Amino acid sequence: xxxxxxxxxxxxxxxxxxxxxxxxxxxxxxxxxxxxxxxxxxxxxxxxxxxxxxxxxxxxxxxxxxxxxxxxxxxxxxxxxxxxxxxxxxxxxxxxxxxxxxxxxxxxxxxxxxxxxxxxxxxxxxxxxxxxxxxxxxxxxxxxxxxxxxxxxxxxxxxxxxxxxxxxxxxxxxxxxxxxxxxxxxxxxxxxxxxxxxxxxxxxxxxxxxxxxxxxxxxxxxxxxxxxxxxxxxxxxxxxxxxxxxxxxxxxxxxxxxxxxxxxxxxxxxxxxxxxxxxxxxxxxxxxxxxxxxxxxxxxxxxxxxxxxxxxxxxxxxxxxxxxxxxxxxx
Length: 331
Known about the structure:
Helices cover 13% and strands 40% of the residues. By secondary structure, it is mostly beta strands.
């Protein structure tokens, strides 16, 4: 019986030994080991991996720029991940055993951004990107931008498959302006909407480089209608969308809305403070983590435009109701 068990175990042991030695960098008669990366984007409110859907659903810029540096941060090579390789999300690395620093940016494109093109003598600290602007303003829709960095150790034996976490650096804000007076007609051109931040660029650590103010204007603004059960127009709403780069807690930001020719805006608030009011107590995270995880906001404003002047009665941000009498945000 013991001999039978021993004989039955030998093929299993042999298979395990063969698997363990199936690749090597030392022995010439063995194939070199394969090493793979797969990108993930779980740093969102759902904590679900949305990286591949987010990238493949973009109109363009469906690629990741992967920059590879040595352990000291000196540039070695780069790789563009797109097409079938991006959809499979299994990126093969042609690297020898050793220590590396990896930097990845997804969604870079010549229309929206400028970024460093590494050279043989550059380092990871030299890398930076910026949003393209015109006279300090951005009025177009940005494609989604993601960033990630990590240290990677390639062993001398055995295959590896490493997860590469990414974070999203672009936000979209949709504003819906509704007149509380039934039947009041609205015109999109009657409203001026803008957001201002101090963040229009980022370095390799995903931190802002300058504190120069950047104004974000709507890339979409128009009139939309809501109908009642009989198919008749119940009310009109001015809808607008704008985007920002990564929002940073503690920095100067603003959201300003003006009506027609009024000299003063009827809403002038700190944008990040307003958005942070929507962080529920059950969200066990710091303010900056919330701003980084939440990438889309819907702001509904109920107005009174009687007499040709606008007065903001109530704000709803992502289903969270804010009355200006309750917080010192509005003028």
